[in-house]
Amino acid sequence: MTREQFLSQYTGEWSPSDGHWFGLDFGWRGQEYRFQTDSMYHPANTVLPDGREARFGVYKKEGSAYALIGEYATPQEALAQCRIQGMPLGDILEDESTELLGQD
Tens digits of per-residue pLDDT, 64-101? Predict the structure, then answer.
């Protein structure tokens, strides 16, 4: 998946019927992860230190639950700033070895 494809699915009005999604499950280097719109476990989104609302989170699957890796105000920030095993999320999603497991 290219960055442009990813961003087109997670920006604007969210409606799966219009090609927009709330979450993306993916596997990379033997581990499952999830990119999630809004908080996965809390009724309200986190307010980031700069005062903006965290609208996107990246999680690592641990058993039947997910552990938060990081929260971001925009999907662009998640792609650039989230690091998994030292690699930016944007590079991971473009990596040919990354398996897209599902979207909802």
Answer: 999 999 999 999 999 999 999 999 999 999 999 999 88
Domains in the chain: boundaries:
3-10+22-97
Burial of 88 (0-12, 13-18, 19+ CB in 10 A): middle
Which amino acid, 98?
T
3-state SS class at 103: strand
Helix, strand, coil shares of the chain, percent, nearest 5, are 20, 40, 40
From the number of C-beta atoms within 10 Å of its C-beta (0-12, 13-18, 19+), residue 67 rates as exposed
Q: In degrees rounded to 5, what are phi and psi of residue 91?
A: -70, -35
- Strand 23-28, strand 31-37: pairing: antiparallel
Does this model's pTM top 0.70?
yes
